[in-house]
Amino acid sequence: MGNREFEKRVDNDVINNLALHKGIFKTEIGRLTDENVALKAEVERVSILFHEKCDVAANSRCGIERLQKDSERLKWLIDGGIYALEARVDEAYGFEVNLSVQTIDAAMKETK
Q1: With a threshold of 0.85, does the pTM exceed it?
Q2: Do 21 and 95 contact (CB within 8 A), yes or no?
């Protein structure tokens, strides 16, 4: 095999790997749709409670403490969902991904 053929094959392998990884990511996002809907509903529910309690918190020490607990819980839910997706991709396909809320949102928009 000449150098040009080898270079072409390597380029194709790289392109195919990138496409595979993107496809895997989309597949995993798809599998998490139900979990994500449930997570979003929970986040929304906590967020609504959070906003409802803002007025109470302005006049109540207890309200402020409850708001802090709710915001910690919200962060925990989001971080937990991201960690679960990272672990699933690593376990299923053997490569690590580092995700953020932004990358997951971008991927979900792309899969719609």
Answers
A1: no
A2: yes
